Amino acid sequence: MQIVNIDDPNDPRVAPYQDIRERDLVGRQGRFIAEGKVVLDVLLSTARFPVESILVLENRLTGLDAVIAKAPPGLPIYVASRSVMDSIAGFPMHRGILAVGRRRELQGAEHLLDTLPECALIVVLVGISNHDNLGSIFRNAAAFGADAVFLDTTCCDPLYRKAIRVSVGAALKVPFASFPDPVHLMAELVAKGFDCLALSPNGDSEMRDVRPAKRSALFFGTEGEGLPPPLLARMQTLRIGMVRDFDSLNVAAASAVALHHFSAGRF
Amino acid sequence: MQIVNIDDPNDPRVAPYQDIRERDLVGRQGRFIAEGKVVLDVLLSTARFPVESILVLENRLTGLDAVIAKAPPGLPIYVASRSVMDSIAGFPMHRGILAVGRRRELQGAEHLLDTLPECALIVVLVGISNHDNLGSIFRNAAAFGADAVFLDTTCCDPLYRKAIRVSVGAALKVPFASFPDPVHLMAELVAKGFDCLALSPNGDSEMRDVRPAKRSALFFGTEGEGLPPPLLARMQTLRIGMVRDFDSLNVAAASAVALHHFSAGRF
């Protein structure tokens, strides 16, 4: 463990932490930011992504011993005072715990499909462009033991800082892959023995009446528009029983309810 | 319907809409702000709260006909240009649809309890201090037909602007009441024939194994701390089956899963 005190906000070693919010918008050239103790713990425990460094507020270091013990040998741990840390980040960094990770090349959906276990529960997302919703869906996927999340290319980035934070690290844990065409992916899933199920407020079957299969793929679309009609026309559609005169559930809440139903018997 | 054009951001008639964000913090002296078409529709349709006025961006008025038709006769509908509206609000008001409602005196929990139907599903919240979570819980409560939400005095305000928005108006629809002491409320609920069930990651029973009673009260505590131990010690505790090594569900997601389970057979 290599503790390094940082006194100068412009120290090049902490450059990846500078101007965090502005950098959210322009991108980080293959890196991502993990925030907070729980997320750091997931990042280090699962080790799905390489970690480049950690930046900690000086008074938070003591409470982090058990987490930092999981770090790979030689990982630089930068320690800064409150004022230096806030200057680096460009705004008050209340959490005081940051890490920079490195993205891996995004695996193709077909490759990820081949790695799934015989009994599998997966989530397929089409057009989820809100980081809160995406992070929450990942959190639910991790909580209910989903094996993977597949995102079409109109979904937002699961490794965006806010998405990781809202997911409490699940975006760093649950394997994910991107795909271009939902209809094509569905055909692949069917060929691999998946029951493909579309969650939709106007679904034909009440979800409670559908028993989880050995391999289930749950499709969720954006709020408002929902899943594209050409996709819905080819799939079994499920509705979650609810009051008729109220706006439907938020998509993240719907994912929690559906994942709970389809993970029955898995724990 | 009384359409009034507003040209001056300082027109006293739109004073309740001024400096929206600052006013969020200091309070609105018995008023609340509803934002967006869906929320306005709920506000006017349910008519649980009196509406004082509506403020609409000029180019949004046409699309609002069906909603505004539900307004009480004589309700002032203020119409402003983009620049006047942004000046009033103090920031860019993308939605362009606002209304001011008047709070009613908060009813006591005992009074609300007396109004509940014979078959009832209610939500009891202790220490939910995050407006996103509170709004989401209200949305789930409305979607699954909960009859009421009870909040202890450490919960945040359901009529805070963001809570109403996140609830997509459910905070204006589902009756709620405040109570000081959860143990005391629980005793009252038991006396009125409610099964009182505490959702907790370490609950004794798996939720799936518990059949909904005629009257069920679902208790949720804050994330992290959870429900207070003296309360848990007196209640049946339920866990939602999930992966053991991951951080538990967000409390709003847990409320969706539990409300779905306990609303079985209600629709």
From TrEMBL, chains A, B:
Keyword Transferase in record: yes
Q: Which residues form the signal peptide?
A: none
Q: Does the keyword Methyltransferase apply?
A: yes
Source species, domain of life: Bacteria
What InterPro entries would the database entry show?
Answer: Alpha/beta_knot_MTases, Ribosomal_eL30-like_sf, rRNA_Methyltransferase, SpoU_MeTrfase, tRNA_m1G_MTases_N
Q: Which UniProt keywords apply?
A: Methyltransferase, Transferase
Q: Which GO terms describe its molecular function?
A: RNA binding; RNA methyltransferase activity
Which ranges carry the tRNA/rRNA methyltransferase SpoU type domain? 121-260
Q: Which GO terms describe its biological process?
A: methylation; RNA processing
Concerning PANTHER family, the annotation shows: RRNA METHYLASE (PTHR43191:SF12), RRNA METHYLTRANSFERASE 3 (PTHR43191)
> What protein name applies here?
RNA methyltransferase
Annotated organism of origin? Mesorhizobium hungaricum
